Amino acid sequence: MHKDTIQKRSAGGIVHNNGKFLVVNALDYNQIILPKGTIEAGETPEQTAVREVLEETGYRVKIKAPLGEISYEFDEDDGKHYKKTVYHFLLELIDEDEVPVPIHQEDENFENLWLTEDEALERLTHDDSKDLLKKAIRVLRSN
């Protein structure tokens, strides 16, 4: 490990409702991603996942089950080396009839997409997101 590795932590998850999964189309990056964001001081990963889904998609959610964590390392353009740990959760809507009101940050140009299992597996940009979706599907089927 690099001596100047910077630890980053974030949390997010997979929202499931009526057989569909909520993903985010990050229009500026042309990527289909799962909602997630940085864990702030004093927050648990669970609190962060719920907050980030609300901010990025406008949906109020609650945790249904933990889906584990993924860690990876990368170098940024700033010349620094990072180790990031992302905590994932299976989430469900608090109110199915709620009209979402996202609270996007200025640099976020996001669009909500509700996709079937097959559509989500096909359209998610990152393989680790697809693996996470498969894990969520296994959890849902075991209940």
The gist of it:
The chain has 143 residues and is of the alpha+beta class.
As an assembly, this protein is: single chain
Note the gap between the termini. 40 Å
Low-confidence stretches: none
Number of helices: 3
Q: What proportion strand?
A: 35-45%
Please provide the count of β strands.
7
What would you report as the Rg, rounded to the nearest angstrom? Answer: 15 Å
Q: Give the H and E element order.
A: EEEEHEEEHH
Instruction: Identify the overall geometry.
Output: globular
- Helix proportion of residues, in percent? 25-40%
Average pLDDT metric:
92
The assigned structural class equals: alpha+beta
Main pleated-sheet profile:
7 strands, mixed
How would you portray this structure in words?
The protein has 143 residues and is of the alpha+beta class. It is built from three helices and seven strands. Strands 1, 2, 3, 4, 5, 6 and 7 form a seven-stranded mixed β-sheet that branches. A hairpin with a 2-residue loop joins strand 1 (5-17) and strand 2. It starts with a strand and ends with a helix. The mean pLDDT is 92.
